[in-house]
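Budget justification note: compute hours in this period were largely spent on complex prediction jobs such as the one shown. Inputs:
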Amino acid sequence: MVNICCIGAGYVGGPSSAVIAYQCHDVNVTIVDLNQARIDAWNSDNLPIYEPGLDEVVFARRGKNLFFSTDVDQAIIDADLIFVSVNTPTKKSGMGAGMAADLAYIETATRRIAQVATTSKVVIEKSTVPCRTAESMRTILEANSTKGIRFDILSNPEFLAEGTAIKDLQKPDRVLIGCLQTPEGFAAQQKLVDIYTRWIPKERVITMNLWSSELSKLAANALLAQRISSINALSAICEATGADVDEVAYACGTDSRIGPKFLKASVGFGGSCFQKDILNLVYLSEQLYLPEVAAYWKAVVTMNEYQKMRFTHRIVRTLFNTVTHKRIAMLGFAFKKDTGDTRESAAITLCSYLIQERAHVALYDPKVSAKQIKMDLTEPGVGTNEADVDKHVQICNSAYEACAGADALVIVTEWDEFKMNQLDYKRIFDSMQKPAFVFDGRLILDAPKLREIGFRVETIGKSV
Ligand code: UDX
Ligand code: ADP
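Corresponding output:
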């Protein structure tokens, strides 16, 4: 029986390790975290993260070959392979603040492994990390290990997207495994290949050197985010010229060299990865004395900030240049549909701006809790405090409740339940102030139909 330990029971560690347990019944998987509340939630009927299909996977294997625990040391001692899936947020202070990844959690976890391990281990870097982090991990492990114990390091970055995590893990486009190009490195790599090829076709499990694997993860996210910033930059041109961004995206996407995915204009990308990973790449480029390369990638983030502000300014401008005391219904707070995650969500920027303009924001999201929304809006740097939030934000239980009496409704997250065939937009129109405005930040609504009802409609990337 192979024993796997995963350190970090978050959005990456939880689902990715649970799927290994689901696919390999003879592999024991223990997911550990220092956060007792998180582990308690993983052991309850109410899992700490919302992800379609996750409940089925966890409930099928929990207590059999899938375990959640706070006993980090025991899980390390028992494991043959250890995934390190801890958080690597952007540094808030010190050298590289605002850009570099904070590797303190990785280092703490690595030191713990070195301290408590009594047998040799394969240590797998799963968290997204700057290029050459594996080297630091290896140095720490080797400097602290007891005689006779070997540590082999692998890089196995995770490409799952939230909202489709289980599908992505069951049928990934590819799995990357990087290793040191030594006989021991190859042997360690093979152990992980043997696990993944139990359910993933061999040709989709790609092996390479450690540094390529680490950089590939940053590169893939940077390229994806760059596509969104590109289409969002075009959306500004569309609004100014009368071109339609959906038509432009379709025309470009049908070129097989470009492809149709990730060309949906939006209020701006969010999520825990895109901005963080690009800033990481920018920092790396600066460290390598490549200022032009740094500036190139930085522009992707600058464009995203611009898109968020452009949309909020459009709302204020359209509402006769003032939103003071107006009720604005915001539909959606998560950074994308099918997740309760709000990290870097465009909704936070949008909402805090509207609060600063003294609007009354009525918010509804099907999966984000009131507590989370309040936490996000009162984070340092967001620009709003608890008193502002108490005074200006109402968290509602349905889209209808949020829209009742509103001057405008704004689609911020593309939840299916906000689509034309899911909500009664005539009922919403009747309950709103007149003129009633709709701002579609996700291109999910049928503007001509809404206009027939009587709405005034403003859509990203369209002038009519
Ligand atoms: C991303 C990568 O897709 C994934 O491979 C990596 O492992 C982690 O980062 P995630 O952030 O979970 O995944 O979601 P993703 O679907 O990539 O969306 C990110 C943001 O871009 C969301 O805010 C989404 O709404 C936005 N987006 C996506 C667009 O605005 N337009 C698009 O066409 C696609
Ligand atoms: P991600 O989206 O990358 O999965 P999360 O923040 O959701 O990031 O999860 C990371 C988890 O790692 C958190 O639950 C955190 O408590 C846990 N963690 C961080 N450092 C350690 C550590 N040294 N030992 C165990 N768990 C840790």
